[in-house]
Specification:
single chain, alpha/beta, Rossmann fold
């Protein structure tokens, strides 16, 4: 596949794939208004895909689409949906089929995750006090939401005999969290990475392999993308601790996952299914 570069002044980053890599393909991104969701949308739009940006709030979806119109002439659609409700996902599918007639790429990105940055003053919650309500809510979004989107949009792909599903998992679906990196400079535990996040991301990897085996004969590829930690507005102490735990000695920049996402969405990976592409700076290497 041709490698191309766009002006960073107009795109915010270099483009690793040709602008036509996904031309004519319709790509749905859940959790599109989040940090990585926005990056996924930009990567797909820059390589020619028609992007459907979906999240809980319509206003947030509209904002993402306005950004995409600045970097791509491809069609876009902003449509809010609750991925935990089958009727909401079905309504989204009807809107997409009515306008575009097909679905070629699904990026299951929406998830509940514990944030280091922007936390309120509250006690960290270890496993033995972890609330059942938070466990269930995380399962509903991270696992059931992924299941529903795969089922509802995957049905369209099966009829087409083609499609690529990318389930965004996590390094914490592969290895347990090192809770020490969530201690402050005084050694106090400010956060425990939740058991629900880790368990649901591991389950997403299992679902990915299951669907890859089921749908491979029908031309539908299903893969996972497991990102590492992304540098945003965390404290300097946390960034240093995380970076020291990572072979590449840094956290990811938000755009570091664009190339991997386009690779899995495009024909560059046409013989790849059932795999977990880990992009973590080496976090899981030791």
């Amino acid at each position: 596949m041709t490698v191309a570069s766009l002006d960073p002044a107009t795109t915010g980053s270099k483009l690793l794939f040709a602008p036509s890599a996904l031309h004519g393909r319709v790509a749905v991104v859940t959790g599109a208004a989040g940090l990585l969701g926005r990056q996924h949308c930009h990567a797909l739009a820059q390589t020619g895909a028609t992007v459907v940006a979906t999240d809980l709030e319509q206003e947030a979806c509209d904002a993402v689409v306005q950004e995409l119109k600045q970097i791509s002439s491809a069609s876009t659609l902003a449509s809010c949906a609750d991925i935990t409700r089958p009727e909401s996902v079905l309504e989204l599918r009807r809107a997409i089929e009515s306008r575009f007639g097909r679905v070629d790429v699904l990026v299951n990105n929406a998830a509940l995750n514990d944030k280091v940055e922007g936390r309120k003053e509250e006690d960290p919650v270890p496993f033995e006090r972890y609330p059942l309500s938070r466990w269930q809510a995380t399962i509903d979004v991270n696992l059931t939401g992924t299941f529903l989107c795969c089922q509802i949009f995957g049905s369209v792909m099966l009829k087409q005999l083609s499609g690529s599903i990318i389930n965004v998992a996590s390094t914490y679906g592969i290895v347990g969290p090192d809770q020490r990196v969530y201690r402050d400079a005084e050694g106090q535990q400010t956060l425990y990475k939740s058991p629900a996040y880790c368990a649901t991301k591991a389950a997403v990897l299992g679902l990915t392999r299951y669907l890859a085996a089921c749908w491979g004969p029908f031309g539908v590829r299903v893969n996972a993308l497991s990102p590492g930690g992304v540098r945003t507005t965390q404290s300097t102490h946390f960034i240093t601790q995380y970076s020291q735990r990572t072979p590449l000695s840094r956290m990811a920049d938000p755009e570091d996952y664009r190339g991997a996402l386009v690779y899995l969405a495009s024909d560059a990976s046409k013989y790849v299914t059932g795999t977990n592409l880990v992009v973590d700076g080496g976090w899981t290497a030791w």
